[in-house]
Design a protein that fits this description.
This protein has 374 residues and is an alpha/beta fold. It folds into two domains: 254 residues, Carbamate kinase, CATH 3.40.1160; 101 residues, Roll (Archaeosine Trna-guanine Transglycosylase, Chain: A, domain 4), CATH 2.30.130.10. Helix content is 38%, strand content 17%. It has an eight-stranded mixed beta sheet, sandwiched between helices. The chain has a five-stranded mixed beta sheet with strand order 10-9-11-12-13, with helices on both faces. Helix 2 packs across helix 4, helix 3 crosses helix 4 and helix 7 runs parallel beside helix 9.
Length: 374
């Protein structure tokens, strides 16, 4: 894998505690060392970390596994800052800063919150800060709960267009049977498609410490593969497991993406119906078509229909012909205030900024050429 890839590493409670009721600093330090090594190689690293509940039990010396929601949320509230402090202290050894991002299902289903989460993660990565993501268990109810960090990591993969998702667990990958129960079980090195025969191989978690099992990992792999992210399920106990996977060694089970992130984005942009339009001047229209650039406020001449930030909009040339469509970083009301101005005047006009671009080239698809391109 070449440099500069977005790589998500998900680590579960059973790995972080090594089956005990407390966090294993030795395990955490080794994971941090590997993530730091990949970070130094130029990869953009994101860590999805479980363990808040276990950390809460450690702080409060509560070994009992009480199932009530308020008790679990209380443990998460106590444990999350403790967990983050542990990660921050360990990454600081390698002079790396970290940022906490707590998400719920609402952050993916609500368009504006989706964009806010995406922009926050991109900003953290741009400033060389490693995001550490967990579900916001202190406020999540069944209606807004993802439910497990395997699926959360897959949703984050889609959110940021990750190249690779590594799900670390306590077994080496997907087997023909549960290797803890059947010594004849064989590791499956790669999977191109998750069909009924693959689902039949999944079993339930037997540690009792986490919310995930092979079922949730297959669910996550399927989601990620469909959005263009390859997935590897591997054991965290393998020495230097992360650098080895990223360098291309055959470790664990590889689930190959069924499409590229770019192709996945194209299909999604084409399937979404535009709710508004912007007419551009000749310079902006030419820039999009010939150079594949982003749309800046200075190139907007007319706003058609009202829309909110995050809406799918169509971009028209001066003759009114559609030439592109994409996701708007600003509402129509905000664009009205900044159209025709230079980017350094956006914050002056609005009192804030959501970026220099009204539509970024990564969130845009050209529709005026024979070959669609982002």
């Amino acid at each position: 894998m070449s440099k500069g890839k977005k790589i998500i590493v998900k680590v579960g409670t059973s790995t972080l505690t090594k089956g005990s009721n407390t966090l294993s600093r030795r395990i955490m330090l080794e994971l941090v060392r590997q993530v730091a090594e990949l970070n130094d190689l130029g990869h953009q690293m994101i860590l999805v970390s479980s363990g808040a509940g276990a950390a809460g039990r450690e702080v409060l010396k509560q070994p009992a596994h009480i199932k009530s929601m308020p008790f679990k949320q209380m443990l998460a509230a106590v444990g999350q800052p403790f967990l983050m402090q542990a990660w921050a202290d360990l990454f600081a050894i390698f002079n790396i800063s970290v940022g906490q991002v707590l998400l719920t299902l609402s952050d993916f289903s609500n368009r504006q919150r989706y964009l806010n989460a995406r922009d926050t993660l991109h900003a953290l990565l741009h400033h060389h800060v490693i995001p550490i993501i967990n579900e916001n268990d202190t406020v999540a109810t069944e209606e807004i709960k993802v439910g497990d960090n395997d699926n959360l990591s897959a949703m984050v993969s889609n959110l940021i267009g990750a190249d690779l998702l590594i799900l670390l667990t306590d077994i080496e990958g997907l087997y023909t049977a549960d290797p803890r129960l059947n010594p004849q079980a064989k590791l499956i090195p790669s999977v191109d498609k998750i069909d009924e025969s693959v689902w039949a191989l999944a079993g339930k978690s037997i540690t009792g410490l986490g919310t995930g099992g092979m079922v949730t990992k297959l669910e996550a792999a399927q989601t990620a593969m469909q959005s263009g992210t390859s997935v590897v399920i591997a054991s965290s106990s393998i020495p230097a497991v992360l650098p080895k996977i990223v360098s291309g060694e055959a470790i664990g089970t590889l689930f190959r993406a069924s499409t590229s992130t770019k192709e996945s984005r194209k299909r999604w942009l084409l399937s979404e119906k535009p709710v508004g339009s912007l007419t551009l001047d000749h310079g902006a229209a030419e820039g999009l078509q010939s150079k594949g650039g982003s749309l800046l406020p200075v190139g907007v001449r007319k706003i058609l229909n009202k829309f909110e930030r995050g809406a799918m909009i169509e971009l028209l040339n001066p003759e009114g012909k559609p030439i592109a469509r994409g996701i708007s970083n600003y509402s129509s009301e905000e664009i009205e205030k900044i159209q025709g101005v230079k980017t350094d005047q956006i914050e002056v006009k609005l009192g804030f900024t959501c970026g220099d671009e009204i539509v970024h080239r990564d969130q845009m698809i050209l529709i005026s050429t024979r070959k669609l391109s982002l």
